[in-house]
Each structure stands twice: as structure tokens, then as C-alpha cells.
């Protein structure tokens, strides 16, 4: 039994502002940090961890206040994701993906769908998963009159068995029109295969899923009116929004690695016997590396926060955002994604240079930080992010909206 299920009570007072929500995330992180390495090794389905996210209120952080939600904005949500990820990258990813899919109705839905989904999701504290892996195009949606039917397979479906609802995506038969729908995760025909067995992010329930005659009403097809999709530029904001989710849990994992390593160096590392220093914290190379890694992390965190504030302006203008505004924002997101990837990988690998050979013991769990970052940063090649930035600088070209840009 993990300590997550035998945890101290959270602060009774409900958070009311961004600072209090970030503090609530820090409380959750402190609970998760106690046995993060143990839970990573066990790889068990994180039912208790998701229960903690629900009880803390973090799952309804973006929900309307009139329905009991936090009523917060994406800049606060990104800080919360980063804070939780410092303790447990898997749970930070689950929370980040949940918040993105909670927002899915706003991204592609009609005003009526947005109001309905956000009210129900907030009041019932739905935890969202998503079967929307864009590399898999074999989910077909068939029009059967008043209903549509999803059939196919997705290689990845983050959230899996711990989700209450799942966002589905497929292509309408005989067209190139994509259809999104939010369905109960226990709906007939939706089968999670429990085959996530990767080196990192082990608790994200990101295995494959099959859709066998999953039937929903046309009214659940997000953004469709009379079976016709109602397009707007904001529909394409799902990519930069989730890429900033990625950035923040990468940086959170890096922060957790650095803080864990600092504690180890202070309490357990030994100075080199030929260095002439009594304590590891006095070793010049140790001081230099920590200073270097901390400076780089601070710089990317500052850029990330700036880009998050830029994104909020677009979210507040969702119905009128232009293609140019969207494209320029995507370039900024691409830049911060590239830097966060590089810095997170560097921090999580170089901490061993300043903790020493004994720090590689399995019981210390320091390897989980690198495994987590290395696993998820392969989601899409960072070279293509740098290319977006370079082409915009040289030619003024804006990225064409795709599943990855």
C-alpha cells in the first residue's frame, strides 16, 4: 500500500486565487514525493493518485466557478502542472492531459456544447483521458442517421482506466473530416489494453485502445451543427496548448531532479579523496555544475511563463483569433519546447555528475527523472520545432496548423 492512500489531509480552505492554487499543488506534490520512486518501480494503476487530484480540486482548476470549479486561467494551470510534476512526472502528465481534454469542448465545440460539458465535468469532477494519437489514422467514424459509430485502434491513450471520460477522435468515412466526441470511459466497445510498458512515465496509463462499434449521438460530435463542422482558427489551438503542457511537466521533472539531487549532495555525497575538500558542497566542480544547471532552468522557466501569458491573450479572444496571431504564437511555443527539451534532458542526466556513483542505486530513484523526460520528449522530433523558429526568422513563414504544429 502506498503512502498516497495513507496521506495527511489537505488544507481545508478552498483556494481562491492563483497563488493559493499553486500552494495547493505544492501540498499534492509533497504527498506524491514521499514514495514517488517506490510507485514508479511498482508501476501500478494510479487510482489513488487520481483520487488525490480530485480531492485537491486540481481536476476542476479550469472549471467555471459557478459550478464549483477554480475558475483559473492557463498560466496558473501550467504552474500547477509544473509543481505536481516536480514530485511525480507521471501524475503531472496525467493532470496536464486531463486539463487539455477538459478544455477540448472550448477548442472545438459549439457554445451549447461548451456550456454543457464544462458544467457536467466540473460538478461531477470528471477525470479526462484521450484516445487522440494523431499518428494513428485507422479510427473510422460512420454516419448512421442520428448516431455516429467509431471503429479502429489507437496506439496510445493516456488516462486509460483511471479516466471517467475519454475524448475520441476519428475520420468521417469517405471524407477527411475529423470528429471529436467525449464518451464515458466504460462505454460499450471502448477497450483499454493495459500494454503501456515503457521506460518512463510508467503511471500514465498510456497504452493502446480499441474502439469496436462505439456509438454516440450526433449531438456529441464536437463543433458539428446539422452534421456540418463549424470551423474557426481557435480549433487549431489544441497543439500549442498541449505543447505548453509538455513544456511544463518537462520543467517540473527537471526541477524535481535538481532539488532531489541537491538534497542528496548535501546529505550523502562524499568529496573526492584527492580534491582537498572536506565536503562535497565545497567542491568547485560541484558548485559550478549546480550553478550552470540552475541558471539554465531558471531561464527556460521565465521564457515559459512569458509564453503562457501570451497564450492567455489568445484564449481570451477565442472566437476572433486570427491565423497570423495563432501562427506567431506557435513559433514562440516551438522555441520554448525546444529549449525545455534540451534543458530537461541535460539536468536529469548531469545530476549524477554531482551526486556520485552511489546515487545510481535503485533505492534512490534518481534515474526516474531522466527516464521520464527521455520517454516523453520523443513525442515529436524537437528538430522540427527549431525549424519552425528558423523558417519564421529567415522568411517570415508561419507554421501551417497540423497535428504537431
UniProtKB/TrEMBL annotation:
Q: State whether keyword Signal applies.
A: no
Acyl-CoA dehydrogenase/oxidase N-terminal domain residues are: 32-115
* Highest taxon listed in the record's lineage: Bacteria
Record bears the keyword Signal: no
Signal peptide residues are none
- Xref: Pfam families: Acyl-CoA_dh_2, Acyl-CoA_dh_N
Question: Keywords of this protein's UniProt record, alphabetized?
Answer: Oxidoreductase
Q: Where is the Acyl-CoA dehydrogenase C-terminal domain?
A: 245-379
Q: What is this protein called?
A: Acyl-CoA dehydrogenase family protein
Recorded source organism is Kribbella deserti
Amino acid at each position: 500500500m502506498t503512502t498516497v492512500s495513507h496521506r495527511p489531509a489537505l488544507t481545508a480552505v478552498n483556494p481562491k486565487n492563483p497563488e493559493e492554487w499553486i500552494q495547493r499543488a505544492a501540498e499534492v506534490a509533497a504527498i506524491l514525493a514521499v514514495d514517488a520512486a517506490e510507485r514508479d518501480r511498482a508501476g501500478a494503476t494510479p487510482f489513488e493518485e487520481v483520487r488525490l487530484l480530485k480531492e485537491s480540486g486540481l481536476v476542476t482548476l479550469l472549471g467555471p466557478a459557478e459550478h464549483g470549479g477554480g475558475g483559473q486561467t492557463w498560466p496558473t494551470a501550467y504552474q500547477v502542472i509544473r509543481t505536481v510534476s516536480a514530485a511525480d512526472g507521471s501524475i503531472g502528465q496525467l493532470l496536464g492531459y486531463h486539463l487539455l481534454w477538459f478544455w477540448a469542448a472550448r477548442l472545438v465545440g459549439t457554445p451549447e456544447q461548451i456550456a454543457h460539458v464544462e458544467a457536467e465535468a466540473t460538478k461531477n469532477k470528471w477525470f479526462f483521458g484521450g484516445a487522440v494519437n494523431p499518428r494513428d489514422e485507422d479510427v473510422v467514424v460512420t454516419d448512421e442517421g442520428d448516431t455516429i459509430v467509431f471503429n479502429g485502434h489507437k496506439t496510445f491513450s493516456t488516462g486509460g482506466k483511471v479516466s471517467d471520460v475519454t475524448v475520441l477522435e476519428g475520420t468521417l468515412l469517405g471524407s477527411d473530416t475529423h470528429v471529436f466526441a467525449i464518451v464515458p470511459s466504460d462505454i460499450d466497445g471502448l477497450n483499454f489494453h493495459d500494454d503501456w510498458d515503457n521506460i518512463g512515465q510508467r503511471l500514465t496509463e498510456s497504452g493502446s485502445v480499441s474502439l469496436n462499434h462505439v456509438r454516440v449521438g450526433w449531438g456529441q460530435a464536437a463543433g458539428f451543427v446539422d452534421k456540418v463542422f463549424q470551423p474557426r482558427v481557435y480549433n487549431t489551438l489544441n497543439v500549442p496548448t498541449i505543447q505548453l503542457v509538455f513544456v511544463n511537466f518537462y520543467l517540473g521533472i527537471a526541477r524535481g531532479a535538481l532539488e532531489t539531487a541537491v538534497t542528496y549532495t548535501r546529505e550523502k555525497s562524499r568529496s573526492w579523496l584527492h580534491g582537498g575538500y572536506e565536503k562535497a558542497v565545497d567542491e568547485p566542480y560541484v558548485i559550478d555544475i549546480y550553478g550552470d544547471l540552475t541558471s539554465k532552468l531558471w531561464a527556460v522557466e521565465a521564457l515559459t511563463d512569458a509564453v503562457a501569458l501570451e497564450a492567455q491573450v489568445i484564449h481570451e479572444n477565442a472566437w476572433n483569433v486570427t491565423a497570423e496571431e495563432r501562427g506567431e504564437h506557435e513559433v514562440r511555443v516551438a522555441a520554448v519546447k525546444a529549449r525545455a527539451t534540451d534543458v530537461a534532458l541535460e539536468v536529469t542526466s548531469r545530476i549524477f555528475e554531482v551526486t556520485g556513483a552511489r546515487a545510481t542505486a535503485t533505492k534512490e530513484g534518481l534515474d526516474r527523472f531522466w527516464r521520464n523526460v527521455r520517454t516523453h520528449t520523443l513525442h515529436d522530433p524537437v528538430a522540427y520545432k527549431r525549424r519552425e523558429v528558423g523558417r519564421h526568422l529567415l522568411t517570415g513563414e508561419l507554421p501551417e496548423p497540423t497535428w504537431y504544429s
